[in-house]
Design a protein that fits this description.
21 strands; alpha/beta; 3 domains; seven-stranded parallel β-sheet; single chain; Rossmann fold; about 40% helix; six-stranded parallel β-sheet
């Protein structure tokens, strides 16, 4: 914290000294943000207007209750709090209402800002848009690698410069960022990443979808959060419908938080998951451990007029999509996977939402096959979901895409099946096995509305997992902070190579800009940053096996760059309009969903 304060002060003074009349120095020296109480008032007005104008339905009455509980809890002392709200409960805005009121209530103790950390880019873009519309875009800094601030002509734009500078030291009142940015910064050893740390002190940190915090880093992350709460005036909100078991009890998790230090924002007896408005799905668990063949699965999907199947592997999803197209040549079949660049996926998701509306209005069939990338932050609403056996948290996330708005007039169906292929990595396989074991212990049924079910699942998971998978805790205890900062990476990208797909004219335009900057003699660092940020919506992470398949179609982004490019117009066989990159890749995690 001391080092961060020194670095930030040094940077501010250097900017002022080097360019006393420049707009950058002015913006850094005198940032213009609204006061927390003003932001609280803006959000309150928006939420009160929404509540007043919303139809008098059971869902809206429950959302109003959740908001009231969040507002009341804001008076609590700083510490650890849980926000356990089912999908569709208005958690995004209710959590922010709690956070801003909590900051105002504890300003005298040094509370200053709200930091929202999420696992997926799609959630960031969705949440920050909601916050910006309520609070004013100048008060909200969105910090992740999808930022498009690569055009130097933007330097004259005051709001753009303020956003860039705020990304370096997080001095805005509301920061929306990724788990990668937050946690890797807390263990960083380099100036640029540590500059923001002193501004994390006195913050409300909302961990959205907290169950996605990587298990292999828990021995470091949870004690660091405890340190922020115990010594730096922070409040941590563990926000998710599937609460991870971070309470410290006998045995694992050794990293946990003392049970008496965790308080619930929603009263324990509220039973929200039992309320009819949120009890929207019926899970159909498999009645045996026999795998369902891909062919039988395809035949079942063909009988459902509107359905989404979520497969373990990209190969499985591709096979199912192809087979459905063969079985139903005249009907619409969509496919989603991380072999598609993000811009491509956004386009397909727009088409899917339009197709789902056609089904609701006219009954026109629509079928989707996807990998697990749809399970958080993707706003889809289907009557039937098929999900390959997985971790209990993943199954609940999949269920969140089923009857999402509760408009079916009946419960949606979530059909869990054993796939004929195993999950693509040992962690996902372990999660699926634990769910199957619990299912066996409980006579073939798990109640996903019972919080105790998730307590059992996560405790079994932590017991069976290495919660310090890279053996980094020893570096902290030995004060080897440089080594720790270098090796603390939530995503292991050492074997992956980014491939930029020139998917449309915008991608080609950005590539020309990047290459133009790269040709300048003094621009090595700039070009590298520019490439990662400006071209991220067109980038797919590829493993060595996939690179070998694509080798003849690839060329370097610019001389000496490890980033490669692929032009699907020149090599149409290398990038399919339905499936994306044509490779035999099977990454262990969907890395481009967890961005830095």
């Amino acid at each position: 914290m001391l080092f961060a304060a020194l670095v930030d002060a040094d940077s501010i003074c250097t900017e002022r000294f080097c360019a006393p009349d420049d707009i950058k120095a002015k913006l850094r020296s005198w940032p213009i943000y609204d006061e927390p109480d003003s932001l609280r008032a803006k959000l309150d007005k928006m939420l009160d207007d929404l509540t007043r104008e919303a139809p008098d339905t059971e869902v809206n009455r429950q959302r109003a209750k959740i908001l009231t509980w969040c507002r009341q809890a804001a008076k609590e002392n700083p510490g650890f709090l849980t926000l356990n709200v089912p999908t569709g409960g208005g958690k995004t805005l209710a959590a922010m209402s709690f956070a801003l009121r909590h900051v105002v209530a504890h300003q005298a103790k040094g509370m200053r800002r709200v930091i929202v950390a999420v696992p997926y880019t799609s959630i960031i873009e969705q949440n920050s848009g909601v916050y910006a519309s309520a609070l004013g875009s100048w008060n909200v800094v969105e910090h992740h690698s999808n930022l498009d601030d690569f055009n130097e002509d933007d330097e004259a734009d005051e709001s753009t410069i303020r956003r860039r500078l705020s990304c370096e030291n997080w001095d805005a009142p509301v920061i929306v960022t990724t788990n990668v940015q937050l946690f890797e910064s807390l263990f960083a050893h380099k100036r640029r990443r540590t500059r923001k740390l002193h501004n994390i002190a006195g913050s409300v940190i909302i961990l959205d979808e907290a169950q996605c915090v990587p298990v292999g880093f828990m021995d470091l992350i949870v004690p660091m959060l405890r340190d922020l709460v115990d010594h730096y005036g922070c409040t941590v909100v563990i926000s998710t419908a599937t609460q991870p078991a971070w309470q410290q009890r006998r045995g694992k998790p050794a990293f946990g938080i003392p049970e008496e230090k965790i308080r619930a924002i929603i009263p324990p007896g509220a039973g929200l998951s039992r309320v009819e408005a949120f009890d929207r799905v019926q899970v159909e668990w498999p009645d045996s451990t026999e795998p369902l063949s891909h062919e039988d699965l395809a035949q079942q999907l063909a009988t459902e007029p509107c359905v989404m199947a979520i497969a373990h592997r990209k190969k499985d999803a591709q096979w199912l999509a192809r087979r459905l197209k063969e079985l139903l040549p005249a009907e619409r079949v969509f496919h989603l996977s991380t072999n598609m660049c993000p811009a491509h996926r956004r386009k397909v998701l727009k088409e899917i939402r339009s197709a789902l509306e056609d089904y609701r209005q006219s009954g026109i069939p629509c079928r989707i096959v996807s990998t697990q990338l749809v399970e958080a932050g993707v706003d889809l609403d289907l009557p039937v979901i098929y999900r390959a056996m997985a971790g209990l948290d993943s199954i609940v996330q999949a269920a969140g895409r089923c009857n999402r708005e509760g408009k079916l007039g009946r419960k949606g169906r979530v059909v869990v099946f054993h796939s004929e292929t195993p999950p693509p990595d040992c962690h996902l396989k372990r999660c699926a096995e634990i769910t199957a074991n619990i299912l066996s212990e409980q006579d073939g049924q798990i109640d996903i509305g019972d919080p105790a079910a998730f307590e059992v699942f996560f405790r079994k998971l932590y017991f069976a997992s290495n919660t310090d998978s890279k053996h980094l805790a020893r570096h902290e205890s030995d004060l080897n902070f440089e080594t720790l900062g270098r090796e603390f990476r939530l995503i292991d990208e050492t074997q992956q190579v980014p491939v930029v797909v020139l998917y449309d004219e915008e991608a080609k335009s950005r590539l020309r800009t990047v290459r133009g900057i790269a040709l300048r003699p003094d621009s090595e660092d700039i070009a590298a940053r520019v490439a990662l940020r400006a071209l991220q919506p067109y980038t797919v992470a590829v493993w060595p096996k996939g690179l070998a398949v694509l080798a003849k179609a690839l060329e370097p982004l610019f001389p000496g760059s490890t980033t490669l490019t692929l032009d699907p117009f020149l090599f149409p066989a290398a990038y399919d309009e339905t499936f994306g990159l044509v490779t035999d890749d099977e990454p262990t995690i969907p890395p481009d969903r967890l961005v830095c």
